[in-house]
């Protein structure tokens, strides 16, 4: 762990201690996958408080962590599935997240706008990357998640994306009309190893993906995984930098030769 990572780890500990000592909920800014992985590595040292991440919508990649002291946990862990407890705990917290809808003023004359275009336009206003969460692009418009304190500023300062004049409006969470697009991919694999599922998802050979995994560019549920043989579990979300992400659904059947028919949702 380098110096910057150690500083970030220290900051997480400070937020956790603040939540515990003052009986308040504390929040990080939006964290990227590397930062979320540092949190997972530090989870043992932070276990004196509850911690739940959220990015404004289900399956968000960039997330804010909420540190919640035991005194404010109104739910018990008497659930059959610990996931239920995490969901209930997350829903009890009001995350400081706003969502902006960014649309061309004149759709007929707007150019083709990408994720990079929307992100670049936001950063050109002078804000930090950590104040912005995921940006979901659809048909030259975008949903942009940001810290609540930045919403008014971005609504006024963000007037143009590349060469296209845009309108920006804040959207209440319950009014967000977005459904992730994905394609169902089904194919045979020898096992549900990480390299096998990556090969299935992205149409590549397992050997060509070794450098990607060992190079620290693959994350499972926000955790950095560097082992090609890592066993993926049902509903795990896999992110591969430069390629995309997908969710492993499970095995639907097997072949006569003993190979498994795996199913995944590949986000597009």
From TrEMBL:
This is S4 domain protein. InterPro entries: Nucleotide-bd_a/b_plait_sf, RqcP2_RBD, S4_RNA-bd, S4_RNA-bd_sf. Residues 192-249 form the RNA-binding S4 domain. Keywords: RNA-binding. It comes from the Bacteria. The keyword RNA-binding applies. GO terms for molecular function: RNA binding.
């Amino acid at each position: 762990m380098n110096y910057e990572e150690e500083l970030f780890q220290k900051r997480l500990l400070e937020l956790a201690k603040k939540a515990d000592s003052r009986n308040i909920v504390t929040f990080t800014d939006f964290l990227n996958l590397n930062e979320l992985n540092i949190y997972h590595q530090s989870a043992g040292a932070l276990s004196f408080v509850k911690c739940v991440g959220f990015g404004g919508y289900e399956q968000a990649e960039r997330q804010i962590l909420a540190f919640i002291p035991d005194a404010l946990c109104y739910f018990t862990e008497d659930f059959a599935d610990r996931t239920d407890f995490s969901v209930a705990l997350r829903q009890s917290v009001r995350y400081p997240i706003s969502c902006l809808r960014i649309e061309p003023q004149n759709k007929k004359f707007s150019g083709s706008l990408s994720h990079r275009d929307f992100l670049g336009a936001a950063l050109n206003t002078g804000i930090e990357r950590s104040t912005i969460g995921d940006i979901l692009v659809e048909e030259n418009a975008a949903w942009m998640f940001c810290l609540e304190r930045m919403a008014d500023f971005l609504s006024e300062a963000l007037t143009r994306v590349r060469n296209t004049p845009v309108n920006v409006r804040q959207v209440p969470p319950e009014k967000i009309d977005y459904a992730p697009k994905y394609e169902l991919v089904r194919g045979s694999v020898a096992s549900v190893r990480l390299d096998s599922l990556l090969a299935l998802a992205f149409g590549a050979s397992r050997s060509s993906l070794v450098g990607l995994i060992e190079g620290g560019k693959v994350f499972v549920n926000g955790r950095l995984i560097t082992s090609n043989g890592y066993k993926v579990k049902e509903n795990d979300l896999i992110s591969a930098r430069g390629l995309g992400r997908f969710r492993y659904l499970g095995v639907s059947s097997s072949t006569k030769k003993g190979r498994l028919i795996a199913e995944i949702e590949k986000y597009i």
